[in-house]
Amino acid sequence: MARDRRPSLVRRAILRDRGKELDTARVAQALETLRHRSKTTLHDRLHRLRMAMGLAVQAGLAAGLSWLAAHELLGNPQPVFAPISAVGTLAASVGQRFRRTVELIVGVAIGVAVGDFLIYLLGTGPWQLGLVVTLAIVLTIFAGASVAIVIQAAATAVLIVTLSPSTENLEIPRFIDAFVGGGIALLVTAVLLPLNPLRVINRAARPALDLLAAQLDMAADALRERDRDKAQRALDRLRNNQEELSAFTEAIEGAKETAMLSPARWHRRDELTHYAEAADPIDRAMRNAGTLTRRAVTLIEDEEPIPETMPDAVAHLAESVRLLKHEFAVGEEPEQARERALRAVSEAGRAYADGVGFSGSVVIAQVRTTASDLMVASGISQEEANRGVRQSFGDQDRPGGEGERDEAPKPPAAPPLG
Q1: If residue 289 lies in a helix (H) or strand (E), which one and from where to where?
Q2: Half-sphere exposure of 187 (CA within 13 A, CB side)
Q3: How far apart are CA 116 and CA 123, in angstroms?
Q4: CA angle in degrees (0–180, nearest 5) for 171-84-187
Q5: pLDDT tens digits for 36-69?
Q6: Residue 222 CA, distance from chain mean position
Q7: Is the predicted pLDDT of residue 287 greater than 60, yes or no?
Q8: Among 351, 266, 354, 273, which residue's Cα sits nearest to residue 317?
Q9: Where are the residues of the annotated region Disordered (predicted)?
Q10: Residue 367 phi/psi, 5° resolution?
Q11: Rounded CA separation 76/67 (Å)
Q12: Which of 139, 173, 247, 360 makes a 20 to 30 Å CA pair with 35?
C-alpha cells in the first residue's frame, strides 16, 4: 500500500521537470523585473543629473568667488564661512534664494548676539554650549522665524562658543562672511551664470506630464481589458505624484526669481507669468485623472458596461497631455493638444449615448473635466474651455459627477513660448 502511494518514476520525473520550468520562468521574470528597474533607475538618475548640473556649476563658481572676495578684498586669512554661506544659499529651494540669503544673515546675527552675551556672563564649556544653542533656538522660534533662521542661529552659536577661546574677534568675520557668501551667490545666479528659466521649467514639467500621460494610457488599457489590477496600479501611481508636482512648482518659482533678479532674463517675464499659470490646471488635471481612474476600478469591479469608445476617450486624454508637453517644449501654440482633448470629450459623449452605469457616468464626467483642465493649461480661458467641451460632447444630457467648472475665468495660461 505504501509503495502504491508513492509516485511512479515517470511521474516524479514529470513533476521534477515542471518544477524546473517554473523555476526557470520565475528566474526569467525576476531578471526582467530587475532589468526594467535598472533602466528606470538609470533614466531617473540621468534626469536628476541634468536638472542639477546648472546648480552644481553655480555652486562651484559662487564658492570660489566668495572665498576670493573674502580673502583678497577683505583680508580674511581663513574665509571658511563665506563659501559655506554661498553654497548654503544656492542649496536652498530654487525660487527662495533671495529669501534664504536674508534668513542666513539674520540667523548669523542672532547666533552671534546670543553666543557673545552668554560667553560674557558664563564663560565657555560643554554646559554653556548646550545652554547657548537652546536659547538661540528658543528665541528664534518665539520670534516666529523660519526653520532656516533657527538652524543658522544655532550653528553660529555653536561656532562662537567653541571657537572663541582659540580665535579672537570671530564675530565680525562670521557676520561679514554671511553677507559676502550670500551676495556672491545671488550675483552668480542673477548676473554671471543665470539659468534659462524656460528650459528649467520645461525639464521640470516633463516628469509630471509623462506621469499623467502614462497612467491615463494604463487606465485606458485597463478599461479595454477589464483589468482591475492594472487600473489600481495606475491609480496608486497617480496618487504618489507629489515629487513630480513639487519639482514643477519649485521650477516655476525659481524661474520667476531668475527673471526678477537677472537683467538678461527680464524679457522673459511675461512668458513666465503665463507659463506659471499652467501649474494649477495641470495639478487639477492630475487630481481629476485620479478620480477618473478610481471610478474605473469600481466600474470594472461592479461589471458595469464599458462602451468601446470609453477607453478611446481616456487614451485621447493621454495623447493630449503628450502633445501639450511637446508643444510647450518647442514653443508652438498648443492647438493639437486642444484638438485631441476635445476629441476625448467627443468619444466620451458617444460612450454616454451608448449607455453606462453609475461609475461609468463619473468616468465620462471626469474625461470632460480633465479635458477642460488641459485646455486651460494650454492657454485659453475657463469659459472658452467649457464651451468647447459642451459643444464636443454633443446634445447628450450632462452626466453626473463633478463635470467641468463654471466658476469665474482664470487668466490665460502658458502661451506659445518664443
Answers
A1: helix 279-301
A2: 14
A3: 10
A4: 105
A5: 555 556 666 775 676 667 778 878 888 888 888 8
A6: 26
A7: yes
A8: 351
A9: 380-418
A10: -60, -45
A11: 9
A12: 247
